[in-house]
Design brief:
Blueprint (H helix, E strand, L loop, with lengths): L7 E7 L1 E4 L2 E4 L1 E4 L7 E3 L4 E7 L3 E4 L3 E3 L6 E7 L7 E5 L2 E4 L4 E7 L2 E4 L2 E4 L4 E5 L2 E4 L1 E4 L5 E4 L2 E4 L4 E2 L8 E4 L3
Parallel strand pairs: 1-6, 4-7, 5-8, 6-9, 7-10, 8-11, 9-12, 10-13, 11-14, 12-15, 13-16, 14-17, 15-18, 16-19, 17-20, 19-21
Antiparallel strand pairs: 2-3
């Protein structure tokens, strides 16, 4: 989303539907095996909204703000018919690779990844919902984590520092 320098793009994935007793979820799947990479804000300003029970998933990585001119924003939130809005990443989420990025998780949102890296000038805003990770790496020169939701953490390794103001931290596989 927003691949070229100075470009802008927004993608909305939303809603769950029930038809004749069957539940259908809006989904966006990034295909390509280990090369299945979701990029929001490659060299422009990209925005991705995952809302009302929708699902976005990739088996590899997700980058928010890939290159120096890139800025990526992802917002996940709102459940529908008992399903949370979800971003599932098989490997790593990088918030602000060389550019900048913001990931916001609202009530009814769920983000799952093996690893998350938050770089300088970028942030993760857990304002409800759930963030589930195995490894969290926060840039000591200005990566930001704001929390007021559930953080499920499966290992005891954090690189950088995290300040918990509100919300709840749960051990994963303990």
């Amino acid at each position: 989303i927003a691949n070229g320098v100075g470009s802008e793009g927004t993608v909305n994935v939303r809603d769950v539907y029930e038809i004749n007793g069957n539940t259908y979820r809006s989904e966006l799947e990034v295909l390509g095996g280990q090369a299945a990479t979701l990029v929001v804000g490659r060299e422009g300003r990209g925005v991705l909204h995952i809302q009302r029970g929708a699902l976005v998933e990739t088996s590899a990585n997700a980058y928010l703000g890939m290159f120096a001119d890139g800025h990526g924003e992802v917002t996940v939130g709102g459940e529908s018919l008992g399903l949370p809005a979800e971003l599932n990443v098989g490997n790593r989420i990088v918030v602000g690779n060389q550019g900048t990025g913001d990931l916001t998780i609202n009530d009814g949102g769920r983000v799952v990844a093996n690893e998350m890296i938050v770089k300088q000038g970028s942030g993760v805003h857990l304002l409800g919902g759930t963030l589930s990770l195995d490894l969290l790496d926060v840039d000591t020169y200005g990566g930001i984590i704001n929390m007021d939701g559930d953080f499920i953490y499966d290992v005891d390794e954090t690189i950088g520092s995290v300040d918990f103001v509100n919300g709840r931290v749960e051990p994963g596989d303990s």
